[in-house]
Every structure is written in C-alpha cells, then in structure tokens.
Amino acid sequence: MATLHSLLALYGALDDAVVALDDPNVTETVEAFLPGTTGPGRQGWFGDVRQFVRRLSVDPDQTEFPTRTAALLEFGEMRSGTEVQEEVGIGTVETAWLLYVVGAHWQLTSRAEEERELFANALSIAVPGSTGTVSIAGGQALLDLFGGDLQGTESFVEVIERAADQNLVSEALLLYVKNAKLDVGIRRDACGEYAVLRAEYFREGLSVKDVGEVVDPLNWHLCCPFFCDMKPIPKTPDSYGWSRVLESISTLCGVVPGYRLRTAIKYWKGERTDGAYVNYDIDDDRANTADDGFTVLDRGYISFENEKRGVRITTLKEVKFAGVPAIATIMFAIVGGYAAIGENMLVGCALKPPKGRVGWKPSAATGKPAKPIDPTVCASAAAPAPCGCQHPFHPAMAEAVDLWAGCVTEVSTEYAGLVNHWAKCGFDAGEMADFGAKVSARLATEPWRIWGMMLGATPQHKGH
After folding, report:
1. Collapsing DSSP states into helix, strand and coil, what is residue 319?
2. From the CA atom positions of the chain, what is the Rg in Å?
3. Whole-model pTM above 0.85?
4. CB contact at 8 A, 275 and 208
C-alpha cells in the first residue's frame, strides 16, 4: 500500500469538502484541524497538489489519489492483514498523522453511525497488541474518544494521552505527539512566496553521537518513507567542501509507474561544543545532474544538541516548487514527510540504526574563496541560483533571521486583520492607537533581543 499517498488523500479530502460544500460549518470544522487552509486563496490547495503530482508522473492515471472512503478502507485492511500491530508497517509519525485526520473526518461526518465500522477499522491500525478482537475493540474505543473530545489542534495531545492511558496507542506514539512541535509559514522575497517549515523534537535516552550516525542526507531514504533514494553526485565533495546528493522524493516510493521529484542538493556537516548540524541548499551545478528542475528553492538545516536527559533536534526547511502555491507546498511537505525527517531520525533511525548507513564525518573547508551572493536572484529550472559557499552559519544565526522575519510578518498580519475587522465593523480609533503602541514597543525591543541571540548575550540599553 502507498501509505503516504493515501494519507495525503485523506487530508486533501478535507479541503475538497470545504471547496465543494461551501458550508460555513464544514469550513469551521476543517479550519479547527487545519488552521490557515480554508480562507480565500488558501482553500483548493489539494487541487494544486493533484496537478503537481500529475506533472511529475510517468502515467498520471496511475498516480491518482484514492477517495476518502477508499483510503480509510486501505488503512483498515493494513491492520486486518497482520497478526499484531507491530507488523503493520506504518511508522509512528505517520500513524499520529493518520489518527489526527481520521478524527477530523469523523467530526466532519457528524459521527455518522453508518460509517462507524469504516472509521474504527482505520483507527485500529494504531492499537497495540494482536489483530482481531483486541484491535477491533480498540478502534471502536478510539473512535468514541475522538468523537467526544477531539475538536482540533488544541485538544489532540490531551486526547492521545487519554488513549495511551487506556492502552489504545503505543507509548512511542504518545512520546512523539507530546514532544514534537511544528511551525509553518509563508514568506516572500526574490523567490516569490515560498513555504517555511520548522520542526522541533526532543527524545530522552539518545545522544548527539546516536543521531550523528544516521543524520547524513545519504541515509534519509533509510529513515523516512518520503525519501525514495539519495544518490551521491559525481565530483563530491565540490571544490568548496560541500557534499552533493541527488534527492528523490515521492508519496509513492516503490510504486511503478509512479512519480519522483528529483533535486540536486549540497550539504555541509559541522560540529559545535554541544552538538552538530547539517546545512543544505540547492546544488550549484544542478544542470549537469538528473535534477528535474521543478524545485525552485530548497534550503535549510538539521541541528541536534545534547540536553540533560537526551537530544533535541530542530529542522528548518524553506521550499518552493515551480507553479505550486505556498499553501499547497506546505501541506504536501508536512503530510509527505519533509517536516518529519528530524522526528523519524529520533523515533526510528537513531534508536535502530539501519544497515548500510553512512556515518558521521564533518565537512572540511578547502580554503577556496567564497563566491559572492546575489540576494535578488532566485533559482529556476532555466537559471539555478548562485550559492555562496561560505562556511555555514551556526544555526542560531538562521534562527535569529527567522525571528526578525517573524516579527515583521506578525506585525503585518495583525494590521491586515485589523483592516478586515474595520471593513466589517467600522473603524475604531482606540484599536489603532493600541496597535501603534504595540508595534512601536515590538520594533524597539526585538532587534536587541535578536542581536543578543546572535552574540550570545543580550545588550542593555544605554541611559541618556
């Protein structure tokens, strides 16, 4: 079964319902589970994903997404075809995303009794223990729990905690849901609008050394089902010391004919006192590789560091596909697995290192002078972006830039919200004054906080 393809189909079916029904109640329910996806210019994202997959497909008719009902049936059959839950073959991260979207659909159907068995069987995929009486009863119990208490993003962790107390989900799934944090957004620069995904995960009992054994991009296809293959590109490392790899991703890895998105990337592995990191970006010479040119922007980092009882891993990814709106890119990336590579490393790979993996070895600078960066140029299929090959910034530098961009974005977003409010309810001078005071304070203090983050200490304002 193409697990990720069917999982994405279930999330897409929520968007289809918003578009097709144009019902305020449906829109409100979906917005509670998928915030930011139902408004003007956002809803309809699954149609864009469908078109993108068809463009990438060898035979578009063979890569169509299943219907909601067909996808639910497939997940139920995955469980019924095994003797115990551990043999199902779906990872902890994907199982968590499945439970969430099935719960969303159950609310959307107003808990229709005629579909109860369909939904319960799909949920049974997460129930620990033997298949049969135990899994069937567990699926029914999960459905009851979801029907009464799962109302959206805010309640998911609490519901899973209650499910774990009743032995309806594994301890590993509970740990993932409690310790994973995902933030997404949309930015605009010379590349136009693009998706930004930041994920953070903490795991007890692991070390930086454990994660380092699996974090090399050449291992990603061994850790996450979204990555079909990671092939070294000839002449790696490049003349600046960056390693080079051709990344191949799909929600249909292993399915022939299917589709693949191939992107040539370069990456740098570095160390610091409390941990290590991998920085990556579009390769400088992608035209001479099997890169298909669909990826306009692909850059980010994976940072992992020791904490008192374990390891915290943080990933940041900025990505843009040609002709695909940012909101569609976000959903494709989240459900597919771009955002989950860090969690998959800690949940699976680092705990049970796969055979044939490439171990940790820091990148080595060659001493070659870095090329200048032109920030006004963005990559395209015709003209790849020039990449400055300076020694990579510490991830904290990138975080600082993110914080400042976030500050400006939040201010702009709040102002847009006020304008919309005034358009509907009339202008309020008091609200404008409060907003102005807040912006003044934020813009006065935020640069100092961010500058302090980059330097490692917060400077104090001087007296007059």
Report:
1. strand
2. 23
3. no
4. yes
Tell me whether residue 56 is exposed, middle or buried, using C-beta atoms within 10 angstroms of its C-beta: 0 to 12, 13 to 18, 19 or more: buried
Q: Which two tokens stand for residue 56?
A: 């990438």
Of 8, 101, 97, which Cα lies nearest the Cα of 48? 8
Distance CA 432, CA 308 (A): 46
CA distances from 299 to 106, 204, 283, 401 (A): 37, 28, 10, 14
Given strand 243-249, what is the order of strands in its sheet? 180-189, 192-204, 310-321, 295-306, 275-282, 261-272, 243-249, 227-232
pLDDT by residue, tens only, the chain of 464 residues = 689 999 999 999 999 999 999 999 999 999 999 999 999 999 999 999 999 999 999 999 999 999 999 999 999 998 988 888 888 888 888 999 999 999 999 999 988 889 999 999 999 999 999 999 999 999 999 999 999 889 999 999 999 999 999 999 999 999 999 988 889 999 988 778 999 999 998 888 889 999 999 999 999 999 888 999 999 998 889 999 999 999 999 999 988 889 999 999 999 999 988 999 999 999 999 989 999 999 999 999 999 999 989 999 999 999 999 999 999 999 999 998 776 666 777 667 888 888 999 999 999 988 888 766 665 555 443 333 322 223 333 444 444 445 544 554 444 444 444 444 444 444 444 554 554 555 455 444 444 444 444 444 333 333 33
d(CA 142, CA 120): 7
Q: What is the number of alpha carbons within 13 Å of residue 53 lying toward its C-beta?
A: 26
How far apart are the C-alpha atoms of 102 and 320, rounded to whole Å?
A: 28
State the CATH architecture for 180-392. Answer: 2-Layer Sandwich (3.30)
